Amino acid sequence: MPEEIIWIGDEPFQLLFSESEIQSRVRQMALEIEKDYAGKSPIFVGVLNGAFIFMGDLIRQIQGVDLEIDFYKLSSYGKEKASAGQVQLLKSVDTKLAGRDVIVVEDIVDSGLSVSYIREAILAHSPKSLRFCALLFKESVADLDFIIDYVGFRIPKQFVIGYGLDYKQLKRNLPAIYQLVDSHPIQTGK
Ligand SMILES: O=P(O)(O)OC[C@H]1O[C@H](OP(=O)(O)OP(=O)(O)O)[C@H](O)[C@@H]1O
Ligand code: HPA
């Protein structure tokens, strides 16, 4: 079967993870988190916009834990495929995070800039614990001095779209994830 390709303008993207592959991995991640947080009342903090679909699917697979949700809204990628190299805080959480078990939910860790920013912001609230969950992790790019506790897929550095991830604010609604084909390499990190 030929690889599934979609075109955005003159840029080809190939299928990286199908909808069923994503859903099955999200279920596994949810089970692991459910086990780790049994008997606790964690708060899941999503990073908007990208994480909204992943977080929605993830928390609906966690039925054995009493959980709350809140969101930060950051922007670092602007309209293009490369990080602006600087994070802008567009919305903070409303919940008091002091003394809480906090799980940050990201669609992707790329340069690591966003998740590092969130970590500092949340640590300033003195949570009881802080863990990170990301569906996608570009480990060849990410520059972190802490670990991402729950990772869905480790991926190469190509730009990806779908399942919450956008290109110029579009294509977040694709149910699968696609990556820019190798012949169009783009450095998306810092
Ligand atoms: O590791 P980094 O290089 O910081 O990249 C990861 C961040 O970039 C994207 O958000 P973006 O700032 O594009 O905003 P969006 O979620 O609204 O698309 C993505 O959703 C992550 O939050
Ligand atoms: O590869 C990416 N695609 C879409 N948004 C992103 N934000 C960071 N990296 C990416």
Quick structural overview:
By secondary structure, the chain is α/β, with parallel strands linked by helices. Helix content is 20%, strand content 31%.
Task: Give an account of the 3D structure.
The chain is α/β, with parallel strands linked by helices. The chain is globular and about 50 Å long. It has three helices and ten strands, in the order E-E-H-E-H-E-E-E-H-E-E-E-E. The termini are far apart. Strand 3, helix 2 (52-60) and strand 4 form a beta-alpha-beta unit. The protein has one domain (5-180): Rossmann fold. Helices cover 20% and strands 31% of the residues. Bound molecules: 1-O-pyrophosphono-5-O-phosphono-alpha-D-ribofuranose and hypoxanthine. Hypoxanthine (HPA) binds next to strand 9. GO terms for molecular function: guanine phosphoribosyltransferase activity; hypoxanthine phosphoribosyltransferase activity; magnesium ion binding; nucleotide binding. This is Hypoxanthine phosphoribosyltransferase. Its cofactor is Mg(2+).
Which terms would index this structure?
single chain; 190 residues; alpha/beta; Rossmann fold; 6-stranded mixed beta sheet; 4-stranded antiparallel beta sheet; 10 strands; 20% helix; binds 1-O-pyrophosphono-5-O-phosphono-alpha-D-ribofuranose; binds hypoxanthine
Unreliable sequence segments: none
Bound molecules: 1-O-pyrophosphono-5-O-phosphono-alpha-D-ribofuranose, hypoxanthine
Just name the CATH architecture.
3-Layer(aba) Sandwich
Strand order in the largest sheet: 5-4-3-6-7-8
State the separation between the terminal residues, measured CA to CA.
36 Å
Overall form: globular
**Helicity, as a percent range:** 10-25%
Q: What string, H for helix and E for strand, traces the elements in order? A: EEHEHEEEHEEEE
CATH fold title:
Rossmann fold
| DSSP E strands, number | 10
| Biggest beta sheet summary | 6 strands, mixed
Q: With helices defined by DSSP (H or I, 4 residues minimum), what is the helix count?
A: 3
Strand-residue proportion: 25-35%
- What is the top-level CATH class? Alpha Beta
Structural class, judged by helices and strands? alpha/beta
| Whole-number total of structural domains | 1
Write down the overall mean pLDDT: 92
Rg for CA atoms: 16 Å
Subcellular location: Cytoplasm
Pathway: Purine metabolism; IMP biosynthesis via salvage pathway; IMP from hypoxanthine: step 1/1
EC number: 2.4.2.8
Family: Belongs to the purine/pyrimidine phosphoribosyltransferase family.
